[in-house]
From TrEMBL:
Pfam families: QcrA_N, Rieske
Keywords tagged on the record: 2Fe-2S, Cell membrane, Disulfide bond, Electron transport, Iron, Iron-sulfur, Membrane, Metal-binding, Oxidoreductase, Respiratory chain, Transmembrane, Transmembrane helix, Transport
Localization terms from the record: Cell membrane
Alphabetized CDD domains for the sequence: Rieske
Transmembrane segments: 59-83, 103-122, 175-195
Protein's name according to its UniProt entry: Cytochrome bc1 complex Rieske iron-sulfur subunit
Keyword check for Transport: yes
Recorded superkingdom: Bacteria
A cellular component term, taken from the record's GO annotations: plasma membrane
Length: 384
C-alpha cells in the first residue's frame, strides 16, 4: 500500500480533516499508512455477556480482591501482631511471636502474586490479540509526524476500548482496592521502622543510643560471653582463648542473669548485642591507628567492634586475617581493623563502633562500659 509520499499515492488528510475524523476512521487511516498489514485482530469475546466472559471477569476481580485482602493482612500484621520476643516457656505467647515474620512474608507475597495473577488473567482474557506487520522509518530524523501521532493514539484508544476495561466495574474497583492496599503496605513498611523514638528511655539500654552492654548500675561487671548454642550454658572468654589473628563473636553476660533462661536467651538474640572480638598478630598490632578519644578501648592485642554494619545493619561477620579487614557480605562494605574499623570499600560511610574492653581480676575479658556512640545504620536523630 502507498505511504502517501510516492507518485500517484493518495495525499494524506489535512489537519482540519484529521480533527473531523472519529476514532474508527483514524484507526483505519493508521492501518493504511506505512505499509501496515493487520494479520489477526479478533474480538476476545465476539458474543457479549456469555457465561464464560462473566467467569473470566469474576476470576480477574477475585485475584485483585485477594491481593487487597492480603495487603490489609500485611499492614495489620506489621503494626499490631505481637512482635516482641517471648520465651518458649510461655507457649501461647511464643507461638504468636514465632508467626510474626512468616505472616509478613506470606501476606506480602500473596498480595503481590495475586495482583500479578489478576493483571496476567486480564491481559490474556480481555486484551485483543492483535498481530500486525508495519514498516516504519524515522521521518528523516525528525521523529513521528503529527499524522502518525494521531493515528497511533487512536489505535491505542481502540485497543483499550476493545479490551472492555471501561465497562468492567468489578475489575476496576477490585484493581483499585488491590493497588491501594499494596501501596499502603509499601508505605507502612519503611514508616514502621521509624516508629521507635531514640529519645525514649534515653538513659537505659532500651534506647537506640545504648545496647545490652550498658551497665545497669555503677560497678556492674559485664563479661564477654561466647554463644555455645545452649542459652543456659555460660562460656566466658579469657585472653588466652584466642590465637593471634583469631576472631570470635561475643555477647554480654551478667552474673545477675545466671539461671535466668529468658534473660540469657534475650542477650544472645538482641540485635545490637553481637560484638566481634579480634586478637591481632603482634606485627599487625604495632601498625594500629587508633581513633581519637578511644586510644584505650583495646586490651593489648585485643579489639572489640560492633558486628552491626553501619550501612544497613547486616552482620559484618567475615574477617580476612591477611589484610585485617572485616567484610559485610550483604553489600560488600569493608572495614580496616588496623584503622579503628573505618570503611575502606563499599557503601558504608561510618566506622564500626568500638567496645572498650579489659580483663577482670578473675582473668576474664569484660566490657569497661557501653559503646560511646549509637551502633548500626544512621537514623534521623544522629548527627552522622
Amino acid at each position: 500500500m502507498s505511504s502517501g509520499n510516492e507518485p500517484g499515492a493518495t495525499p494524506p488528510p489535512s489537519d482540519a480533516e484529521l480533527e473531523r475524523m472519529d476514532r474508527d476512521a483514524l484507526v483505519r487511516l493508521g492501518t493504511s499508512l506505512d505499509g501496515v498489514e493487520i494479520v489477526n485482530y479478533p474480538e476476545p469475546w465476539p458474543v457479549k455477556g456469555t457465561r464464560a466472559e462473566k467467569r473470566a471477569e469474576r476470576a480477574v476481580a477475585l485475584s485483585f480482591l485477594i491481593s487487597a485482602l492480603a495487603g490489609v493482612g500485611f499492614v495489620v500484621a506489621l503494626i499490631w501482631w505481637p512482635w516482641r520476643y517471648q520465651p518458649p516457656s510461655n507457649q501461647d505467647a511464643h507461638f504468636l511471636y514465632s508467626l510474626y515474620t512468616p505472616l509478613l512474608g506470606i501476606t506480602l507475597g500473596v498480595s503481590i502474586l495475586a495482583l500479578a495473577t489478576g493483571v496476567l488473567l486480564y491481559t490474556k482474557r480481555f486484551i485483543p490479540d492483535e498481530l500486525a506487520i508495519q514498516q516504519r522509518d524515522d521521518n528523516m530524523g525528525q521523529g513521528s509526524a503529527e499524522l502518525h501521532r494521531k493515528t497511533i493514539l487512536a489505535q491505542l484508544a481502540d485497543a483499550g476500548n476493545r479490551s472492555t476495561f471501561a465497562r468492567r466495574s468489578a475489575i476496576k474497583r477490585s484493581l483499585g482496592l488491590s493497588a491501594g492496599m499494596l501501596g499502603l503496605g509499601t508505605v507502612a513498611l519503611p514508616v514502621a521502622s521509624l516508629i521507635k523514638d531514640p529519645w525514649d528511655q534515653t538513659d537505659t539500654k532500651e534506647s537506640l543510643w545504648h545496647t545490652g552492654w550498658q551497665q545497669q548500675f555503677p560497678g556492674e561487671i559485664v563479661y564477654l560471653r561466647r554463644n555455645t548454642g545452649i542459652p543456659d550454658e555460660i562460656s566466658l572468654v579469657r585472653p588466652e582463648d584466642l590465637d593471634a589473628g583469631g576472631m570470635e563473636t561475643v555477647f554480654p553476660f551478667r552474673e545477675s542473669e545466671r539461671g535466668n533462661h529468658e534473660a540469657l536467651l534475650h542477650a544472645l538474640r538482641r540485635a545490637d548485642n553481637p560484638v566481634l572480638l579480634i586478637r591481632l598478630r603482634p606485627e599487625d598490632a604495632d601498625r594500629v591507628v587508633k581513633r581519637q578519644g578511644q586510644e584505650d578501648f583495646n586490651f593489648g592485642d585485643y579489639y572489640a567492634f560492633s558486628k552491626i554494619c553501619t550501612h544497613v545493619g547486616c552482620p559484618a561477620s567475615l574477617y580476612e586475617q591477611r589484610t585485617n579487614r572485616l567484610l559485610c557480605p550483604c553489600h560488600q562494605s569493608q572495614f580496616d581493623v588496623l584503622q579503628y574499623a573505618k570503611p575502606v570499600f563499599g557503601p558504608a560511610t561510618r566506622a564500626l563502633p568500638q567496645l572498650p574492653i579489659t580483663v577482670h581480676t578473675d582473668g576474664y575479658l569484660i566490657a569497661r562500659h557501653d559503646f560511646i556512640e549509637a551502633i548500626g545504620p544512621g537514623f534521623w536523630e544522629r548527627p552522622s
